[in-house]
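Entry 12.
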Amino acid sequence: MELDSQIKLGHLLLYDRKCRVCGEVKNLIDGFYRTRKDRGPVASSYSYECKDCTIKRVITSRITSDIFDRWEYPDW
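Predicted 3D structure (tokens):
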């Protein structure tokens, strides 16, 4: 039994990943941001949230630039 013929490089490297937010399966390199730059192109160096969901999360959590919208009376 030859293991070299049964195991291919594609089985060892992850090319696709499922997003934890939207649940879609996307390409690992094109669909996800890298979180660790110091390590090589390892699957663990990519985030678990796709680029589209990350952009939506950042836009909705962004604070408005108008100071009077966020102003509260100080509690001394």
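Annotation: The beta strands are 16-18, 25-27, 32-34, 46-50. The chain has a mean pLDDT of 78.
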